[in-house]
Amino acid sequence: MKISRIARIGAIGAVAALALAGCAANEGGTGGSTDAPSESTLTGTIEATGASSQEAAQQSWVAAFQTANPDTTVNYTATGSGTGRENFIAGSSNFIGSDRAFNADELAAGGFGSCASDEIVEIPVYISPVAVAFNLEGIDSLNLDGETIAKIFSGAITNWNDDAIASQNDGVDLPDQAIVPVHRADASGTQETFTKYLSAVAPDVWTYEASDEWPLQTGEAGDGTSGVVAAITNGVGYIGFADASRTADLGQGAVEVEGEYVAYSAEAAAALVEASPLEEGRSDHDLAYAVDPAAAPAGSYPIALVSYLIGCVEYDDAETAGLVKAYFEYVASAEGQDAAAEAAGSAPISDSLRDQINTAIDAIVTE
């Protein structure tokens, strides 16, 4: 099944079943209006780095924003989330994409060089399933429970015809072939999402803390999402994890939840996030989700990436502040979310979350 079809199904399902899409394309700020066109007064350039998972969505967002605001330039480079956060602290990125929010220790340490103060805005604008993707000749899908996935990536299961895999896939002719697990070489929020899933659902097997850095020396490493996907694509017997929008041509794992195997979709990923609370103790402009894969409700997909845009409450330059604020407003708008769903198969945010996000964006000082 191709991701383009999954994206359309997921986006439609998210609207119908979860009310994730906005009711009108002109809700949610700059770039979201379908009223008579008006001449943009925005000018300038902003630099951004970060999550490679957002790359396809960012390309669609940037193109639409620059078309609506022709005197602006948004440069987004997909460096990976870890590098993006480092750049934000160092002051070399006006905003970043990150597959996780800054944690409590990082917020306490402060020192965000891109900002005029240590107050930041973190908004979840990209929700997407993380696929368990593999390359086996003649096999398009496999059922896998959490314990089996953990054993594959920890090295406890090393062959594709292992009984643990075969028992969940009656009628599938599994090869007598070595398994080569692929992980991220760089610090990655996608990787942290995946290791959080492993530690939550199979703690007796995956005994490591959730981390954006891979804890083992075994397996093969790929740089960024593209590196992981390329390794799996070019290696028969390989398996890895990546943003689902990038794994269309690979075999896919359906993941066990509440006794049923759930294939990834935008709708199923959104169901997990919709059932999750926001982290406590954060400001109204810092919206970080506390997603627990072990508490995934029936029908949801338990490995869901919640990726953020992160900017400053205060910038040294008013033009930069205005551009970042306008760009964030467009990304969060119904139009921006629909563009990402079309380009990347992500799940549009709900109307209630959009309201919270717009409140957070309003904290950016532009005067």
CATH superfamily of the largest domain: Periplasmic binding protein-like II
CATH architecture annotation name of the largest domain? 3-Layer(aba) Sandwich
Distance, first to last CA: 49 Å
Quaternary status of these chains? single chain
| CATH level-3 fold name of the largest domain | D-Maltodextrin-Binding Protein, domain 2
Q: What's the structural domain tally? A: 2
CATH C-level class of the largest domain: Alpha Beta
How big a fraction of the residues is strand? 15-25%
Q: Which stretches are low in confidence, meaning pLDDT under 50 for 5 or more residues running?
A: 1-36
| Shape estimate | elongated
Report the count of strand segments.
11
Helix content: 25-40%
Q: What's the gyration radius in Å?
A: 20 Å
Query: Would you tell me the structural class of the helices and strands?
Result: alpha/beta
Give the topology string: H per helix, E per strand: HEHEHEHEEHHEHEHEEEHEHHH
Question: Helical region count?
Answer: 12
**Overall pLDDT level:** 89
Main pleated sheet: 11 strands, mixed
Question: Nutshell version of this structure?
Answer:
With 367 residues, the protein is an alpha/beta fold. It has helices at 3-18, 55-68, 81-90, 104-109, 146-154, 163-166, 189-201, 224-234, 266-274, 318-332, 334-344, 351-361, and strands at 44-50, 72-78, 95-98, 120-134, 141-144, 180-184, 220-222, 238-243, 251-257, 260-262, 304-312.
Supply the key terms.
disordered N terminus; alpha/beta; 11-stranded mixed β-sheet; D-Maltodextrin-Binding Protein, domain 2; 367 residues
